[in-house]
Amino acid sequence: MRNDERFEIQRAFDLLPHVIGASWAVVWFRMKKNKKPTKEEFREKTIEYLRMIEPVFESYPKEDEFVEIRKYIEFRKNEEYEKIKSGENKEIEKRYNRYVDYG
After folding, report:
1. Are 25 and 42 in contact (CB under 8 A)?
2. Is 7 exposed, middle or buried (0-12, 13-18, 19+ CB in 10 A)?
3. I want to staple 89 with a disulfide (CB 3.0 to 4.6 A). Which of 8, 40, 69, 83 is the partner?
């Protein structure tokens, strides 16, 4: 698969974890009045909210011309979940630090 064929999916996975996952997690912790969640709690809650949009990740048809992009989406999804869990997603870590520092 050419890079230009997956560019938009790459951009989406660059943004979705912190725009959807971390943003919704922050609101959840605020509403629960938990100003100091652990990093692990924050990461798990981020993934929980990100998983809610998985139907979008699985929305391309199972037709031959979509096989490669579907494989790539599955790969990137799993890679992003692992990066979040391990603390390697810098945007999620930045959102966590900002939340615990400023609430």
Report:
1. yes
2. exposed
3. 83
